[in-house]
Each structure stands twice: as structure tokens, then as C-alpha cells.
Amino acid sequence: MKILAIDTSCDDTSAALIAENRVLSNIISSQDAIHSRYGGIVPEIASRTHFLNIAATAKRALSEADVSFDDIDKIAVTKGPGLLGSLLVGLSYAKGLAYRFKKRLIGINHLEGHLYAPFIEKEVKYPFIGLVVSGGHTSIYKVLGNEKIELLGTTRDDAAGECLDKTARLWNLGYPGGKAIDRVAAKGDPGRFSFPRTALADGSFSFSGLKTAAIMFSKKYSDKIKDMMPDVAASFLEAVVDTLVIGAVAACKAEKIELLAVSGGVSANRRLRTKLSAACRENGIELLMPEARFTTDNAAMIGFVASMKGYDKNWTRLNASAVASI
Asked: How far apart are CA 158 and CA 144, in angstroms?
């Protein structure tokens, strides 16, 4: 079965071709250069840029896979969560294709796509604990099987990636913030400064206190923070990473599950991968993380989830939702 997948959940326009659990193509048109001048994503600009890019991105995905629209068996598209205007661009385009070429269509939850990203082109193993950590989401799930997903905890305020983006903007390090802090932190000492780690008893996450600590630190050392920035960035990143590692390992222990799958844009962070690997080895937990190309928002993960599902019989009623839960 050949599946054309489309993802326009936030600011990256992506289209992919999936066939029998193989990724034939996975095209991502990034908007980083556009939004960097604002220090963050501007929703209206994101949706308008999707509108300009979507057709060319889909055609490029088909061309790279050497597949035509007529060869497609099913179309998969992200239905939420995400920026509503962005989601509607992808959904409208997918519906138009389904109608024009008389194809089956299915709407896929973006978070479910991230959850399964570590298994792309691999065999899915159950049960597993899934940690989705990105610019807009920090959530942890227990996955017992296809369609058997339980939310164990989520962030009470900022997502981890959002915290990194806002702090990078505070320190004028650039955008996207996670990549910028990771780059600067690579030259610093993560043990020089102390930033708070918040571990909540119910398994939830919180990063607002850490963000506030960064603001207070900047005020206290305003005259010399620039010279200390590698150590400051490394220490701050260490606090974000420790919070995620503690939460993920605690969930595995509490649920007595020995497989942890971590995904989302922040999962590409080098320090997070290093510390998670070490913590999982120490606790007898198998760790799965996606290839770098599948960590950010991408259509391949949407197509992969679609390959495990059927299709929406009444797809004309399919609509976008900015806050869709799994």
C-alpha cells in the first residue's frame, strides 16, 4: 500500500511517501528563516507560507519516490493538534486530492505520529512508555497497543522546547532556541550554575519556574552574563534535560515497563540523548529514539501511523482541531 502523508501542524510543510513500512521520501520545507526575524512562530505567516509551499512539497515527495497521484492507495493528513490555520491548509489540500483522484483519506493525530516515530521502518513493540518532547508538547504516555494509549502526564505550563525558545530569545542566542542553546552549551560547563529541576508527584512536568529562574539569573548577572554564556547555557540545558530524564525513568518504573520511546524536536538534543542513554542503562530500560530526520515535525511519521489504521469513511466531515488529544 502506498500512502501520501501530509503534515502542516505548525511551521514546517512536509509531505512523505510510505510503502509497506518503508519511507520512500520525506520532504520538509522549513520556515525557520522566515520566523527567526521575529524570535518565534507567527501563526498567520506560517499558514500563508504553507499555502504557498504545500503543492510543490507534495509533488516533490511523489517525484522523489517515483510515484504518481494515480498510484496512491491512501492519503493521510495531520488533523491536530497544532496551529489551526496551518492545519486547515494541509487538511484542505488533502481533501482536494482525495476528491480529485478518488482516494481514501484518514486524519491522523500529530502527537500519535510523534509517539510512533522511533519505530519508523522497524517493528512496533508493546508495551512502551512514550515521551513526546517538542516546542509545543511535553507529554508522557503508556502505550499498550494500537488505539490503547493512556496519557500519564503532561506539562502544566510551558513545553520543554517552548522554555528553550523563550530563554534563547532572552539571551539573544537565536532561533530556534533549542538548537541555539545546544550549540552554545556544547562549549560550557553544565555544573557551574544551579537551575531548578521540578519533579511533580503526579508525573506531570513544569518549566515555568525554570524560565523564571533564567530571567532572575539574567538580572542578577546582567553585567557579565555574556562572558559566561557557554556555562550558563550548559547549566540551563542540564536542568531541562534532568527534568525530562527523571520524569521518563520514573514513569517506566511506576508502570513496570522496560521500553522507553522518546520523540519530538527536543529529542534531537545531544545532551538529552546522552543522559537518557545512561539513565536507561542504569535502570535496565531499553531506549528507542528516532533518526534525526524524524525528530522534528514530518509527514513520514503521519504516514507510518496511517499504515496501521484504516480510513475515514465520512472524510468530508473531517475537520482540524488545535487541541486534539490522542
From this structure: 27
Partnered with residue 295 across adjacent β-strands are: none
The type of residue at 60 is R
Q: Is 53 left (phi over 0), alpha (psi -120 to 50) or beta?
A: alpha
Give me the phi and psi of 151, to 5 degrees please: -75, 120
For residue 54, what are the CA distances in angstroms to 48, 49, 92, 156, 180? 10, 8, 10, 33, 28
What are the tens digits of pLDDT across the range 95-136? 999 999 999 999 999 999 999 999 999 999 999 999 999 988
User: What's the pLDDT tens digit per position in 160-197?
Assistant: 999 999 999 999 999 889 999 999 999 999 999 999 99
Sorted by where each starts, the structural domains of the chain and their CATH numbers stand as 2-116+295-317 (3.30.420.40), 125-289 (3.30.420.40)
**pTM of the predicted model over 0.70:** yes
